[in-house]
Backbone:
RNA sequence: GGCGGCGUCGCCAAGUGGUAAGGCAAAGGUCUGCAAAACCUUUAUUCACCGGUUCAAAUCCGGUCGCCGCCUCCA
């Protein structure tokens, strides 16, 4: 089975055929670095990280480019508010972005170009557009002439007349057509600027992606991605600039991820209903967040709520519990006897990689892929519960298959014990009782149980339970966890 | 107003022509001094509603209702 990808351009799933066999070139729009990232940014970046990892896993040599938009109105505004140069703001939030992405366990893209380091490439594209009659300079600004580019709006599937009827467009006096967009903006006093054939100024938003993708990936490349909200105008304008300048197709496959919602409404800065990545990571483990984001298909909206995050946490814990159980079983040694291998577990283990690939080949269906993992987990748990000391090699195999899937999705990457400890210490910090006090009560209970004073033992269990602590008895002793 | 998407068990979520994955929650059982975890069993004859096409539809077509997104910066 071959990879099939939903292409926004055609509106259908298409078989994925890269330009150069065995290689994939992919450009994803990064962030404008003027503030901390929110969960919506987390989703977009986790989704494309997953796609990147899967393409690599599928054997492609992938060149992945993700940019930083480090000059723009919002950055300048913030810099003015704080009374600092714009690059102080952009550098600060580039560092914050990098920190957030590292916390989420993202692989680094091949290239992470910054707009301000590619001004020359941009002015070159703009000059070419003017020469070809697709753009015009007007009093220090340069605009793209949308009427000159016939396929304009082919990605968002609109038409110019209707867009105008919508009439929320400001008719810039320098523009010939109200939909024309800026390639270059003449700088006002106090704004950062670069020299150009049209005077001092700075690039428009869209041109950086055209120029940088061309530099790192060529005039035509395979995949261009970003959030759904970038379809219009950003990606539409990129297509116009690049295809007009080069006379060649731009990106072949356009992939857009769905939004993160809060109460079924889009999370966004303007609505003010957003959570930053840092806020969420104070409450939930990064792997839990990642698991949650991948538990729905990347194009569907996903609703962010405490309940959903907690469910994701419980689900992920279930998988880790199994991995821990397998490790414990294996610690007991080799297969005890040459017993018969459990048929179901053999089957589920042997087919996981294929089923995973099938799900992922169908437009990166991570939700289905995780369902298959849970299938195998249940089989493994059954064998574990049956105390099959004769199936250890098989259990080890199952664990390795689960881990393999996890590597591609960027989850199950911790040791099971480390994961459990992380969750525990995170939750313990919110408890009304100290771990020392819990330990003391556990000791007391052990003594009570040894004396068969079950009444006192249960009293202690109940007291702790009231404070959200569950005691777990096992032959190895008593441990506790936070519920 | 234009364009696009969605509506599947109490909740989350796969499934896009062949007779409803998976997770969470819930109930019963096994295990346990009692618990927890884990295992086993149960939980949608039905996929917003109404028509139509088909041997066959959650999946295709038409209509209705509801929700959301884009059309302005936005992942």
Residues:
């Amino acid at each position: 089975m071959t990879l099939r990808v939903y292409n926004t351009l055609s509106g259908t799933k298409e078989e994925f055929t890269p330009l150069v066999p065995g290689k994939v070139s992919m450009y994803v729009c990064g962030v404008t670095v003027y503030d901390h990232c929110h969960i919506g940014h987390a989703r977009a970046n986790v989704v494309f990280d997953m796609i990147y990892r899967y393409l690599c896993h599928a054997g492609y040599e992938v060149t992945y480019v993700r940019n930083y938009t480090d000059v723009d109105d919002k950055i300048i505004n913030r810099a003015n508010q704080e009374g600092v140069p714009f690059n102080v703001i952009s550098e600060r939030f580039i560092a914050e972005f990098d920190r957030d992405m590292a916390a989420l366990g993202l692989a680094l893209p091949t290239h992470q170009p910054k707009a301000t380091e590619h001004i020359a490439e941009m002015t070159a594209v703009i000059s070419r557009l003017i020469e070809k009659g697709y753009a015009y300079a007007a009093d220090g600004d340069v605009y793209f002439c949308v009427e000159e580019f016939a396929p304009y709006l082919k990605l968002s599937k609109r038409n110019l007349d209707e867009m105008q009827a919508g009439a929320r467009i400001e008719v810039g006096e320098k523009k010939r057509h109200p939909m024309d967009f800026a390639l270059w903006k003449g700088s006002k006093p106090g704004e950062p600027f670069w020299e150009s054939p049209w005077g001092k100024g700075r690039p428009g938003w869209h041109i950086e992606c055209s120029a940088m993708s061309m530099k790192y990936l060529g005039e035509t490349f395979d995949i261009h991605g970003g959030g759904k909200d970038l379809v219009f105008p950003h990606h539409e304008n990129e297509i116009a600039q690049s295809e007009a300048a080069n006379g060649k197709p731009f990106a072949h496959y356009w992939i857009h991820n769905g939004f993160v919602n809060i109460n079924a409404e889009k999370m966004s800065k303007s609505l003010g209903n957003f959570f930053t990545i840092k806020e969420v990571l104070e409450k939930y483990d990064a792997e839990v967040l990642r698991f949650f984001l991948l538990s729905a298909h990347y194009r569907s909206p996903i609703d962010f709520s405490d309940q959903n995050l907690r469910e994701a946490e419980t689900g992920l814990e279930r998988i880790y519990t199994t991995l821990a159980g397998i490790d414990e079983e294996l610690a007991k040694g080799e297969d005890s006897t040459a017993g018969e291998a459990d048929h179901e577990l053999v089957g589920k283990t042997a087919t996981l990689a294929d089923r995973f690939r099938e799900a992922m080949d169908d437009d990166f269906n991570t939700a289905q892929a995780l369902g298959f993992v849970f299938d195998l987990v249940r089989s493994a748990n059954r064998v574990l519960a049956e105390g099959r000391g004769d199936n250890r090699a098989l259990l080890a195999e199952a664990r390795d298959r689960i881990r393999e899937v996890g590597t591609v999705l960027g989850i199950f990457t911790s040791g099971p014990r480390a994961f459990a400890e992380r969750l525990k210490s995170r939750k313990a910090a919110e408890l009304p009782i100290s771990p020392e006090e819990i330990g003391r009560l556990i000791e007391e209970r052990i003594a009570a149980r040894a004396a068969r004073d079950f009444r006192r033992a249960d009293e202690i269990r109940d007291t702790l339970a009231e404070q959200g602590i569950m005691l777990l008895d096992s032959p190895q002793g008593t441990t506790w966890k936070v519920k």
Notes: Chain A is about 50% helix and 15% strand. Chain A has three domains: 4-266, 309-417, 431-482. The CA atoms of residues 8 and 254 of chain A lie 5 Å apart. The first strand of chain A starts at residue 4 and ends at 7.
